[in-house]
Amino acid sequence: MASFVSNNLPAALMGLASSPAAVGLAAGALGASMYLDARHNVVADLKIINQGISIAKYIQQQVELGRNHCLTRFQESVARLPGKCAIRGSDFREWTYAQADKSSTRIAAYLLDKVGIQSGDTVALMFENNPQILLCMLGIFKARCVMTPQNTNLRGAALLHCLRISGSKVLIFESVYNSAVNEILPDIQKLGIKIVFWSHTDDVPNIKEERPTFKVHSTLSETILERSKADLDQPERIAKIIKDTKPTDPAYVIYTSGTTGLPKGGLRDHFALIGLLAPNNPISMEFPKEHDVMVGASPLYHTQAFIPFMLSMSNGATFVPLRKFSASRFWQQCIDYQVTSFWYIGEMLRYLTVQPPRPTDRAHKVRRIGGVGLRKDIFREFFDRFGMEIILEFYAASDGTSSIFHAYYGGVEGIGSVGRRGPLLRWISGAPRLIKVDEATEEPVRDPVSGLCIEAKVGEAGDCIGLYEVGGPGQPTYKNNDAATNKKILRDVFVKGDTWWRMGDLLMRDANDWYYFKDRIGDTYRWKSENVSTMEVGNLLMEYKGLQEANVYGVEVPGNDGRAGMAAVVLHENSKMRNRDEVMAELGRHVLDDATWRL
């Protein structure tokens, strides 16, 4: 998830924030611009500019006050709403803000004292969506460690790779993933990673749970934390760790597909989260509000669930981690858990739209949703059928510096668009910008005389790029992968010496300044909410000695979002294909499943 306006406009708006003349100019221009608005989006542009100035001021104030930790606003929620429900589990167990605060403080102290890690170390998590992973996330942040949730579809070499590149010192997991951990146990031990098992039966005895058969460093549960409260209740110590946090201290690693065949670890710092969680950020202002109950329908290793959780804790809302998404049961679950809002991925809304009509379609209280990837063909249908009042569709990336959003309240304008930005906002903010790329090499097309990049024309798909400040706060990098980071940075784009970040997607701007997502760039395809590396699939197929050549690519499937994977293969004479189940088990079902296995 990009850090939205706070990172979109760092140079321009941080300067504007300290300029009264600029604020006055914006206000004066507002009154004179109405006649231009229909054509050039002036009023909306000025609103976003003013919001950007406000966010820049907020961030500047936070830094000056030494409030650099991503949980600063969560602490405010705890102080303001100690008895309110912060987290509601699928079994309807609830944790108030005070309880979540106490449990996460104990987890932080446990990691530092019992497990023996230090602030700055990386802690990996492997859980289904449940309250325990949320408490662990808060606890890891409180210890000022780097939180990295693992993609629970990964197994074997791919999972080990993620643990290695993130530099994980600890892996906390639950029993569902006993076999996944056991499979790579010798390699984990060689890396010196301490393994901590979270036991649910300690807290809820009637739950069926298989304990790991292999040796772990320790076992953790809320019951164990309660028994050790004399040692672990250290609010003053944890408060000091939070207070001493610097804006550039790393906060979390979220994985993204890698064109070299294995995931990359996108590293973000506390500064990036401060901007995203700012109370005056347009996303934070709308989703969620304090009265909301927000459901996390995507896996929590996705920013589409992790960020809504952080926003919920910052805004004083209630968050419900949905263990598994079911299109047929989703609206009933929203009714049962009293859900009022959620973040989506486009495929999820498509699954809901193709369901037969049910009484629950409008019996729920959900009226405001936000997310990414909602396609034009179902945009209006979903809005009308399920009784929405606002859909906030936006474009961003967990490892990006640019974003754009579209608040849709009904009507026909902008359906399927990720947002609108007129010439005024493009000129001041500098983002997002779309540049031409060579279709064959996917490299930027440069002017033969100046050597600078060429901006995509109206109606022409272009590589989306955002401003990038090398070494600056809030800027994305790939952990332990300088080559991948440098590959994303473009220099000498519009003027000599400037630096920009490639988002990795093709967008298109129409004649009315509406932006539309077109496709991904590079050797990846997106299927069922996962960005999949064609190289990763191809490398595994080529492990079969009977295979002479494999070319993996994404293909469109009618009625589905994204692209499914397809492999064109050349077999050695008299060879037989490798067992399908073996391949699926190693790659994970998000890479090869029943709908995508076509050889």
Automatic annotation (TrEMBL):
<dbReference type="GO" id="GO:0044539">
    <property type="term" value="P:long-chain fatty acid import into cell"/>
</dbReference>
<dbReference type="Pfam" id="PF00501">
    <property type="entry name" value="AMP-binding"/>
</dbReference>
<feature type="domain" description="AMP-dependent synthetase/ligase">
    <location>
        <begin position="74"/>
        <end position="449"/>
    </location>
</feature>
<keyword id="KW-0436">Ligase</keyword>
<dbReference type="GO" id="GO:0005524">
    <property type="term" value="F:ATP binding"/>
</dbReference>
<dbReference type="GO" id="GO:0005324">
    <property type="term" value="F:long-chain fatty acid transmembrane transporter activity"/>
</dbReference>
<keyword id="KW-0547">Nucleotide-binding</keyword>
<comment type="similarity">
    <text>Belongs to the ATP-dependent AMP-binding enzyme family.</text>
</comment>
<dbReference type="InterPro" id="IPR042099">
    <property type="entry name" value="ANL_N_sf"/>
</dbReference>
<dbReference type="GO" id="GO:0004467">
    <property type="term" value="F:long-chain fatty acid-CoA ligase activity"/>
</dbReference>
<dbReference type="InterPro" id="IPR020845">
    <property type="entry name" value="AMP-binding_CS"/>
</dbReference>
<keyword id="KW-0067">ATP-binding</keyword>
<protein>
    <submittedName>
        <fullName>Acetyl-CoA synthetase-like protein</fullName>
    </submittedName>
</protein>
<dbReference type="GO" id="GO:0005886">
    <property type="term" value="C:plasma membrane"/>
</dbReference>
<dbReference type="InterPro" id="IPR000873">
    <property type="entry name" value="AMP-dep_synth/lig_dom"/>
</dbReference>
